[in-house]
Design a protein that fits this description.
1 helix, SpoVG, SpoVG_sf, Putative septation protein SpoVG, alpha+beta, 96 residues, four-stranded antiparallel sheet
């Protein structure tokens, strides 16, 4: 099983529901960029990178195959997001 070896959180300061954009590295060999942390009605969740198709719908271009892997990925990303929020400096910069 691949292990998550790095999570980079870039907080978003604009208004709206998106809170951060995240890059996740697996086994120090493979990275997925542009995973979004979104504030939903029931709390934070992740949205996988996607692109707009010819029919106007957005389709994930990378995503977990099963719910267990998605839960591990989401829990790890949201934990890193929470830690980044704690590590914010007084002037609002995020340390990585």
């Amino acid at each position: 099983m691949m292990k998550i070896t790095d999570v980079r959180v870039r907080k978003v300061t604009k208004q709206g529901k998106m809170r951060a954009v995240v890059s996740v590295t697996f086994d120090n060999e493979f990275v997925v960029h542009d995973i979004k942390v979104i504030e939903g009605e029931r709390g934070l969740f992740i949205a996988m990178p996607s692109k707009k198709s010819t029919d106007g719908e957005y389709r994930d271009i990378a995503h977990p195959i099963n719910s267990d892997t998605r839960k591990i990925l989401q829990d790890t990303i949201l934990d890193a997001y929470d830690k980044a929020a704690v590590e914010e400096t007084a002037d609002g910069e995020v340390t990585e």
